[in-house]
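Researcher: We plan to redesign the surface later, but first we want a full-length starting point. Tokens attached.
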């Protein structure tokens, strides 16, 4: 059900505001937990019907996909394009942090909970946390969208529930960012789709259990270590990488612009009345400076995405040939470096559309995530079950090939080369 409404809620955040849409999935999750508690406490009265109603309500209110889309749209409103990939990386890292802390905290609360039914106490705790989060959004979080659409054509119910209608923004040629080809948005969405489909999440542990005789203990360590590694990459390595390249760009620009300005001033001092041939306005023009900065940001995000997908392909290859558990963990460590591609891709997406369409775009991306998330286990598990008896590591070679293709397709997403002409880049 979340698949049907995520695109609609994304577009709604452009017209009603990010804060308005952020409240909806939190409220749905809160209702979901309350219905679970009612079922557990009064099962003899209500039966188990609410167990089926609760997830439907959570899905129709958007769920995790809408919350993520609205959160990314909120961050996009509040940050400059140059810093967006780092901020997206931080919010993604918080989910990895939750994956590290959450299970341990849940086990601890279950252990210290009084009474005969500690699970109910855990559900009460979740309701308390989500209530605090909802109140925080309602009364404290400010609205970030300064470009609210005041006039738009209302959608019919059929259009609201049509997931292919939500994907329309990804299929239209983009005209907002003239520094990349018009088809860049469509190519980027397709790359994102095949990258999700081609990542064999469910096979990592199954293969290790078969080849290295893992148990639940080793599997738990594998996922905990992987989450911790991605947390370090997104919170530590990615900001340092961005800082390094930003300082390098500033140094390079100073090396070229300052001598030009010195020559201009020297010529101007010799002939103050002649300023027709030597004019520094083209260098200092605010609009051109802004566009040059956007071009540098674009190049940074594109290259980070390429490196991330290339590293993922290499990591999957090492998964396939790993002879021991230690080598398998080494491949996982290399794969964690590929997590830098995700925030850079999100940053690229938001830079290709105007601010008035950011919510609609991110909603469409969440729909792509959901579709790919449904297809991926069906495809990957089918291939693995077919080949596990003859060549169990074949799935890793195939998935590595998918990421090689994804990396190659990113070469189509490149700045239009040429010269500046009235604020635009031309071939």
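Model: Full-length starting sequence:
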């Amino acid at each position: 059900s979340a698949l049907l409404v995520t695109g609609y809620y994304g577009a709604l955040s452009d017209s009603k505001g990010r804060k308005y849409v952020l409240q909806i999935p939190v409220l749905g999750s809160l209702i979901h937990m309350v219905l679970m508690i009612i079922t557990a406490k009064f099962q003899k009265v209500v039966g188990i019907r609410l167990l089926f109603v609760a997830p439907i309500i959570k899905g129709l209110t958007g769920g995790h996909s809408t919350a993520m889309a609205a959160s990314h749209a909120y961050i996009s409103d509040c940050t400059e394009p140059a810093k967006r990939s780092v901020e997206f990386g931080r919010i993604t890292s918080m989910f990895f942090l939750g994956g590290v802390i959450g299970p341990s905290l849940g086990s601890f609360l279950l252990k210290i909970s009084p009474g005969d039914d500690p699970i109910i106490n855990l559900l009460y705790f979740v309701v308390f946390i989500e209530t605090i989060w909802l109140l925080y959004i309602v009364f404290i979080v400010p609205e970030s969208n300064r470009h609210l659409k005041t006039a738009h054509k209302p959608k019919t119910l059929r259009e609201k529930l049509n997931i292919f209608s939500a994907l329309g923004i990804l299929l239209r040629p983009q005209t907002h960012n003239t520094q990349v080809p018009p088809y860049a948005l469509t190519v980027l969405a397709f790359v994102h789709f095949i990258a999700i489909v081609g990542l064999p999440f469910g096979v990592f542990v199954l293969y290790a259990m078969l080849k290295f005789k893992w148990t639940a203990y080793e599997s738990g360590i594998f996922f905990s270590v992987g989450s911790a590694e991605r947390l370090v990459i997104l919170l530590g390595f990615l900001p340092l990488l961005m800082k390094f390249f930003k300082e390098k760009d500033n140094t390079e620009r100073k090396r070229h612009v300052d001598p030009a300005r010195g020559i201009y001033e020297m010529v101007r001092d010799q002939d103050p009345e002649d300023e027709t041939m030597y004019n520094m306005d083209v260098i200092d023009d605010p609009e051109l400076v802004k566009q040059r900065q956007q071009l540098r940001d674009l190049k940074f995000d594109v290259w980070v995405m390429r490196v991330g997908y290339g590293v993922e392909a290499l990591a999957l290859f090492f998964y396939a040939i790993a002879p021991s558990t230690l080598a398998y963990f080494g491949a996982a460590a290399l794969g964690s470096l590929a997590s830098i591609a995700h925030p850079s891709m999100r940053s690229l997406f938001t830079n290709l559309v105007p601010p008035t369409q950011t919510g609609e775009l991110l909603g469409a991306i969440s729909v792509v995530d959901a579709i790919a998330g449904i297809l991926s286990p069906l495809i990957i598990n089918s291939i693995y079950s077919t080949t596990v008896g003859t060549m169990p590591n074949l799935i890793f070679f195939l998935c590595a090939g998918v990421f090689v293709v994804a990396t190659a397709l990113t070469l189509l997403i490149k700045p239009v080369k040429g010269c500046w002409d009235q604020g635009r880049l031309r071939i």
